[in-house]
Amino acid sequence: MADAPPAPPLLLASRSPQRQAILHQLHIPFDVVTPRYQETWPEVADAVEVVRAHARGKAESVVELADERPVLGVDTAVVLRGRVFGKPTDAADAERMLEELSGTTHVVVSGMCLLTPGWEELGHESTRVSFRELSPRDLGVYVGTGEWEGRAGGYAIQGRGAALVRCIDGDYFNVVGLPMALLVRLLAERFAGVYGFG
Question: Known catalytic residue: 67?
Answer without folding.
Answer: no
